[in-house]
Amino acid sequence: MTDRPPVRGAHDKPTLRPARAHFSSGPCAKRPGWSAAALATDSLGRSHRSGLGKARLKLAIDLTRRVLKVPDSHRIGIVPASDTGAFEMAMWTMLGARPAAMLAWESFGEGWVTDAVKQLKLDATVITAPYGELPDLTRVPQDHDVAFTWNGTTSGVRVPNGEWIRDDREGLTLCDATSAVFAQELPWDKLDVVTYSWQKVLGGEGGHGVLILGPRAVERLESYTPPWPLPKIFRLTSAKKADAAGGVAGAKLIEGIFAGETINTPSMLAVEDYIDGLTWAEGIGGLNELYARADANAQALDRWVEATPWVEHLAKDPSTRSNTSVCLSLPGAAPDVPKKIAALLEQEGVAFDIGGYRDAPPGLRVWCGATVDAADVQALGPWIEWAYGVVTS
Length: 393
Known about the structure:
alpha/beta; Aspartate Aminotransferase, domain 2; 2 domains; 3-stranded antiparallel β-sheet; 9 helices
């Protein structure tokens, strides 16, 4: 590595430390000023089906609608198994009614492709791109159902907008928005299904997913019965029943799921933590302020990248670069250098969990979502540079 670019101040350990060293991409940092003492606890030890339990779940749903500005036409439900459970629920209950297109440019999208093709046995059109790039979205057939991640958490590449989704599309759009929601604008009129987990963006405790359904998704659920068995936790409609005339009535959406009656037992402590995050978000100015904070964090990191010759963004095109899960590559370094940097900075207590995802190219990943403070991102850059100098000298 004799041709390695010079490192500014390689042996000068920085003195300014991030006040909060939490840069994990999920669960991400708690909100500024978070304390367990701030959480309401009256619902703990109570049934989630009690009046209080259902009221707190319904409050979480109502706050979600207010903060995200979800239209009244869309239903919001809290479901099991994080974003994975929510997106699997959507795929298993809705895909198969018409041809499907699956998009993938990083590991989570690749997972949805695997489930659609190998588990559901769909003859899907698969459109892919390598890490750091976005597929050609003009190739997506508008008469197909399409499933995709809005923000590639493990590649740092996001969809820049929804202009590629036609208003007169025939297929449904199923969007895994888990590291985009609360930080990037989502076109609700173009998205029929949106899923996420609150641990990815608001720093909530894991284990729960959010499923948002537009009218076209509800219509699909009530008019289509998939040919495969559905586990109980995936069932969103009631069983068909004979009507008064002796005919068979259509399936009906289980509306209780979208009013605080969860399919299985939720952690009420996790729900209270989510409520706390939503209340904080609303209190600082809502969605626009969340966008601004994430943008400011990503810009702070980008300034350091631009000034540092040995590091690059994995996402080359700024228009498709994430402002939450920012992925960095070290093109001149040995493959084990990023891991050594992450380990050294964790040992120093200045950066936790910034190693790249296990399936991604070797690199670093820094969470820049709204619960992180820009001053901490600014303080992080010199520490990465110091660690690079230490592990490569």
